[in-house]
Model the fold of this input.
Amino acid sequence: MSQTRNGTAETPGIAAPGAGAPRIEKLAAMLKRANTADKFGRWVITAAATLVLLGVAMILIFLTMESLPLILEPEKHHGGTLNKMLLPQKYEGYREPQYVWQTEASEGGEEKFGVPLLLWGTLKGALWAMIFSAPLAILTALFVAEFSSPNSRTIIKSSIELLAGVPTVVIGFIAFVTLSPVLNHYVVTHAAYFSNGLWIGFLLQILVFALVAAALCARILTSRKMSKASKIAFMAGALGVSFIAAFLVGRGLEYAAAPVLRPLFGVTKYTQLNAVLAGFCLGFAIIPIIFSVAEDAMRAVPNSFREASLALGASPWETAMRVILPAAVPGIYAALMLGLARAVGETMIILMASGNTPIFDASPFTGMRTMSAAIAIEASEKARFSTGYHVLFFVGALLFLITLVLNAATAQVIYRLKKRYHVG
Done:
């Protein structure tokens, strides 16, 4: 202990009172600046989220306000009332009530707004797009997440991301110029095959070939006892077996099931631009969305799941099918719903590849008109505040509502799936 000049005692190692005040003030100023920056950041984030919500609300309000005259002023828009838009109507020249979409009235006639025709076309196109894209995207995501090497994963993901960058107008143009004539030539030269309904057998052949080949090749690739040369040889044999299986299925359907397939799937009407062509091209447009979300969901499954399955003696294939896929079901379902929502709202591919014929027909070889395509085609042709103008806004509001309900239902189903599989 030492003494100061005035005789007071000073304890070694202990600062005199007030010596740390500048440092404390500096720390307080730093904390104040940090709190200010934190508040500003939270304000910016909150403002951004609020703007998004306000934007969605404004779109909904605008669509609703432009649709309301059809309900509030039926005497002015007698051709666009809810009854005439949503129920079959008896029009002049038609034998019985039916849905008709004809927005250009003939002389002395009236405009016809059969909205269910557009709804049917939208669902028809989205269904065929999902049939083509969902199996391919999910199986590719499973391969990339569980079986591919890092180099293969990089190449596949980069290729699919490149596909996502292709403008849909380019895909529609390819469908219109290249694929449509090829499909038309094939159907014309095999007219008897399609008229007997055997085209559904062709789809079954593809399905059988894909399933058998995938099952056999996956078993071979995940085998731990085969050399690379043996795997290549056995995979070639597996493809041959798959082809034979598909061929036998097709022959069996041709000889035994033709009388059954003809009344159910016989093609009596065919248009060069049709639902199959549009769905096939639209499927390629939504593959990147489904693949990306599904692959992320599979890779997000904890490694402890894989390690536990392999430790119990399961093969990598069994682990992927019985452990990883069930655990990733919520994410896979979300991927499918995002793809479906994308397909429902697509415009350019449908405009160029579907024929834009508003008809009720379940055949995939006839055309269709979707809600988004109807808006794109006719928006510039309608006078402001006319009946057709308000009907298009009603169609837009209905499309918005379908997407909203679809997203809400998806969120609820994902929540239930997460609780069921104890993930997330």
Summary: The beta strands are 2-3, 9-10, 101-102, 112-113.
